[in-house]
Amino acid sequence: MEITQSKLTKLEWESIEIPVSEEEKEILLLIKNGFSDPNINYNKTPSLFTILKIDKSEHLDAFLFNYYLVNALQTANNTIGLVLPEFNEKKMVIKKMTRMKLQNSNTTLDTKKKYIYEFIIVDIINLMADAIQKNNDNYVTHFYTLFKMIQMNITNKNSVLADYCNSIFSKYQGGIDYLNVIKNGYNIIERNQYLNKYGDIKLFDHQRRIFSIFNQPSDEARLTLYIAPTATGKTLTPIGLSNKYKIIFICAARHVGLALAKSAISIGKKVALAFNCDDASGIRLHYYAATDYTVDWRSGGIRKVDNSVGDKVEIMICDVKSYISAMYYMMSFTPDTNNIITYWDEPTISMDEEEHELHSLIQRNWQQNQIRNIVLSSATLPKEEEIHETISDFRSRFEGDVHSIVSHDCKKSIPITDADCYTCLPHLLWKESRELVSSVQHCIQNKTLLRYFDLQSIIDFIMYANVTEGIITNERYRVANYFESMFDINMTNIKMYYLDILNNIDIEQWNTIYEHFQSLKKKNYASNTKMVTEDAHTLTDGPSIFLTEDISKVAKVCIKTANIPQQVMSDLNDSIAFNNKLNEELKKLEHSFEDMLNKMDISEDSNKMTKDRFTPEMKNLRRKIDEMRNITKVIKLNDMFIPNRKEHLSRWNKEKTNTSPFTCDISEHHVIKIMELDNVNDSWKILLLMGIGVFTEHNSIDYTEIMKELAREQKLFMIIASSNYIYGTNYQFCHGYIGKDLSEKMTQEKCIQAMGRVGRNKIQQTYSVRFRDNELIKRLLLPEENKIEVRIMNRLFNSED
Predict the structure, then answer these.
(1) Please, which contacts does 95-104 make with residues 24 or more away whose CB atoms are closer than 8 Å?
(2) Which of 143, 429, 555, 637 has its CA 20 to 30 A from that of 184?
(3) What percent of the chain has pLDDT over 70?
(4) Residue 762 vs residue 87, higher pLDDT
(5) What is the DSSP-derived secondary structure letter of residue 476?
(6) What is the DSSP letter of 542?
(7) Burial of 295 by CB count in 10 Å (0-12 exposed, 13-18 middle, 19+ buried)?
(8) More confident: 102 or 213
(9) CA dist 325 → 88, 357, 370, 760 (Å)
(10) What is the DSSP annotation of 47-95?
(11) pLDDT digit string, tens, across residues 234-292
């Protein structure tokens, strides 16, 4: 169970030493550097100047435009109808060495053109001109892209080309129909490969805001309510804050803490960890944070660390149980608590229950806390007006300020589909107008829900409302009047416009509107139950997660619907049973061999060098172990039964309706390791052969660690997980199922957390959250009275018992 307060295992310790990818490292360095420069903004797309490695000048700008770009723009310009800039090269003062360098670069430049900013801009202009010539209204897509691209923070971009593009904007912007922009909004915004690929690299708005708060010198205590969508970098924000402050990071979900430790260590941050600690003796320092240690005379590496000396620690990562020990430890080296921030990740974990084993620990931590700077961070944290009691208690103890950071960054859509496979949005869900009004108001107040609104379905509604008489009665809410500029039309604003229309329509018209869209509804896929057969091809781009309380039931359904012939299942079970029995015998023999080694004082790692000291009995035993390992049966499934393999698709996806289905990639090495485990359910072993892993509370740490490795590397087709993993699983999933059995007691907050497991990728792909029970969707999109998390938080985050 991920929120159990327990010591870290050896495998968990080893996992934080695995370096992150170079791409991830770049983001971490952005966050680290962004603390001192919250407006940091750069772009890695090379310009002609950076590729050619020549210094920028006015003459060279013109020369490069003439030399490389003007001919490529001639045809497009004939359609666009502008005067292309002309320059007399003979009058340009260009050094002879520079001219030679340009001539020598021509061959290599041809192979790099598609990556160079100026040539990308020329391609977009040509696409726009071609669409204009064909009278295709899709030209607005290229016009919008061109405007956004020319605004990007490119080092030494060609100013002549930029001026030419500005002339295009001046000529065409006045004639752009905003409704046409909305109509093409899906391609312009959500699926715009240029903007997704070449966008500027900068902090999220909520990161800039929290860094600005803590950059300001202050002797006042600060309570910061930090609310931002999942997968937007909240749990990495402490890396930036640690540039100035010592951080104590509390996480009930240990996986989140381990992920932060791994990220911080990857960029050289000094980290300590405290899990299941009753006092400071349980705290462990990573090598980077060690001051006193002994060195291994053979390897030169650190052998033994004195964990009691933590003066170098920048980030202390602890579970809920260990906070007080971690706090006193950090205070012993940093007595001025103004220089420490307690950063509490997902503080409302467990607060969807009236009673929970964490509650007493949470209240103890709040009551005994002495750190005056506190950040409470969660996508679903109660808002300031909901937790007056907690805020009053903080102010009475520390006399400080309260800051609220509420962000709803919406750069991708993760559409919700219901149990019948239909897209779910307010105008598609509510037949009764009073429910519609209540739902729309709730969504306006909780903009994090915008992330789960399907953009294309919203566009369809906006188009209908703007062209159908009588729907929009207030002219203020027509597209042309709502948006001040075409460039105000972004994903968030389109979705807010949708809600504003619904909030201001003539209710008398609602029945007609509702019936119209009901008649147009189409299923997104055939069913919501056959994820390993008929539906598998709809699970695209990356792994999926199935959240349920009844792991065993879902596992059985997956195996049953896979339709594996009885003979194949029988052979698999026989092979697994044979290997299980073999493994039991092998363990006994290996234990006997280890006992013999121990008696001779020979370590197992060195036995290859000391085979000459083996007794005949040991040699026979070793030979028998090797022989038994060689007769282990290789267990493998035919590709026909592995979701989205070629043979599987031929069987189940005969219409070839999808071109990017995702399948597993599990090595024989991992299969063998799992098959050797004797404390893992046999059905889980069969699931693994299908590319499906299981996350739940059980006795096999080895199985869990292997699944984590496979999930981290995106090798699994799907993970089946219990709700305990809603907060603790930060792996990248493209699709998610919310099981029926979760709907009975799942609160809005926990539902949003469950949905937050999907779409954590940094890139835009096809995502979906698939509910198996429609009542939970309705609960999600309507106001929830007397929220249990709010009530419990006010009770626990309070100095009074």
Answers:
(1) 98/54, 98/60, 101/52, 101/53, 101/54, 102/52, 102/54, 102/67
(2) 429
(3) 95
(4) 87
(5) G
(6) S
(7) exposed
(8) 213
(9) 74, 19, 12, 33
(10) -HHHHHT----HHHHHHHIIIIIHHHHHHHHHHHT-PPP---GGGS---
(11) 999 999 999 999 999 999 888 889 999 999 999 999 999 999 999 999 999 998 998 88
Q: Kindly state the tokens that stand for 419.
A: 């149990």
Predicted local confidence at residue 597, as pLDDT:
77
Spans of all domains in the chain: 10-38+203-406, 48-200, 440-520, 536-564+637-780
Asked if residue 161 has pLDDT above 90, the reply is yes
Name the helix (H) or strand (E) containing 7.
Answer: none
> Where would I find the H helices in 446-507?
455-467, 479-482, 491-504
CATH of 10-38+203-406, one of 3.40.50.300, 2.40.50.140, 3.40.30.10, 3.30.70.2860: 3.40.50.300
Listed in sequence order, the residues at least 6 apart from 104 whose beta carbon sits closer than 8 Å to its beta carbon are none
Measured torsion, CA atoms of residues 271, 274, 280, 284, in degrees rounded to the nearest 10: -50
All residues at 6 or more sequence positions from 82 whose CB lies less than 8 Å from its CB, including other chains = 164, 167, 168, 171
Do the bridges between strand 222-227 and strand 692-695 make them parallel or antiparallel, or are there none, so unpaired?
unpaired
CB atoms near residue 484 (< 10 Å): 7
pLDDT band at 607 (very low <50, low <70, confident <90, very high): very low
Total residues belonging to the chain: 801
Beta bridge partners of 788: none
**Cα 543 → chain centroid:** 12
Tokens linked to 252: 């009930």
